[in-house]
Amino acid sequence: MGSYKQNAFKYATIVAMGGFVFGLDAALISGTVKFITQEFSLSELELGSVVGAPAMGVLLALVFVGYACNKYGRRTTLMIAAALYLFSAISSALAPSYASLLVARFMGGLAFSSISLASMYIGEIAPPKWRGKLVSMTQINIVVGLSAAYFINYLILGWANTDAPWVQEWGLDTNTWRWMLGTEVIFAFLWFVLLFFVPRSPAWLLYNGREPEAIRMLQKVTPEDEIQAKINQMRSSLENSNQDRSMLTQLKEIFGKPMRVTMIIAMTIAIAQQATGINAILFYAPTVFEQLGIGTDAAFAQAIYIGLTSVVFTVLGLLLVDRIGRRPMIIWGMLWIILSLGVCYYGFETANYTISENAVSELSEIPNSERLNALVDVPFDSDISFKTALIETLGETDARDYSGLLLQKAADINALLILLGILSFIGAFHFSIGPVMWVLFSEIFPISLRGVAIPFFTLVTSFVSYLVQKFFPWQLATMGISSTLLFYAIVVSIGLVILYIYLKETKNMTIEEVQLALATRRKT
């Protein structure tokens, strides 16, 4: 591998490490849901606010990140994001109240814009043939971070349930969720330090009139005989754009007629990616698996399979994105997602829930478990009707605290079918629309608009993500798991139709060639 390839890979790896911190930050909260709900007596919407607070934070950050990355540079803005991750991790682990935890999580969300910035930076330094692979490294790091988070949560929960002296001494048994969230500190600090070794983006240098520095930077990541052509392409992209660089003017250009196809593609995929409900599954993984009636400890263990599946299929997608192409991976991947959600819907919709007399006698963990005698041998055909009966019988607090145990005793459900459906959904997402969206974002916008366009459409996907995270506990309590999954499948189906009509292939094209392809109305 030539030195320029080594440098491109090295810089992309460091920048993409932000994806690992993002994945860790996003998934660690999944293991704390039950603990923080009990400690702070949270309602469904309050719990959704805590889990979704980072998505709300990124909504604010993305309003300013376009300005920041154009004004101060991609690297400097990424370093600010790393510092925010670090601050958020420390504050979350030490949070004394619901409000302080909400604020700490919100501050971490300000750093979530690092995902779009990483895609932007890597897209600007990567050779065209490597762009898909290198940009997708961010998604690889996200899923590795997710896997690490699920494993860390499982490990800490296992230690907390032992009688080892050091467990009590360190407070793992009484502060389990704080230890889970606190592990992020190590990785956020490491990423912050490594970013000092990353050079500035050549596109940003040229954008700011610093062409000699841009050439020196390109010498590190581009063959010598291709540098001038690269400079000419970037200069041409800048000269052909609207020279009024205000954010409002750039947004008008994004929504203008010449970029209408690009806008439709970007808007649709930004909404559809999160409307799959992926973050409901990822951020509430143990809660989702509890619906299978397998118990809390087993639910934490099963969550690890989500992480492993994510890694395997993201790596597979990374290897094939430049071979298969963007369009086939997204179109067929979304169809795969819809079918997987349909399998899960069928599994949950056909489930039944009945508490037997023997089960009640075994529920010694529940205070005054004889209260459940009124429900003995009463069949319930949905999780909603069963949970409603539990609340009426036990009260809201006990029904919530012991829901995992009660579902384990009562559920008559095809758990294997649903588990396979969930893992199929996770695989489909991380093979297709998960990583490929960021590849497309790094390709379909001209250099002059990228600093505003990528954060803007990331803002859209982050807002949808926030809605999913915020309302999933409420949907679970009011709609039920089956209807919630069906809702996701319907929304994704609408997105699939739109992308089938408008999405064009962009593999192996320069960014300038992509602009020409999207400016025409020819069919792919």
From TrEMBL:
The UniProt record lists the keyword Transport: yes
Major facilitator superfamily (MFS) profile domain location is 11-507
Residues annotated as transmembrane: 12-36, 48-69, 76-95, 101-122, 134-157, 177-198, 261-286, 298-321, 330-348, 415-440, 447-468, 480-503
The protein's predominant localisation is membrane
Provide the topology term for how it sits in the membrane: Multi-pass membrane protein
Q: Which Gene3D superfamilies match?
A: MFS general substrate transporter like domains
Record InterPro entries: MFS_dom, MFS_sugar_transport-like, MFS_Sugar_Transporter, MFS_trans_sf, Sugar/inositol_transpt, Sugar_transporter_CS
From the Swiss-Prot or TrEMBL record, state where the protein is found. Answer: Membrane
Give the record's keywords alphabetically: Membrane, Transmembrane, Transmembrane helix, Transport
Question: Record's family?
Answer: Belongs to the major facilitator superfamily. Sugar transporter (TC 2.A.1.1) family.
State the name under which the record lists this protein: MFS transporter
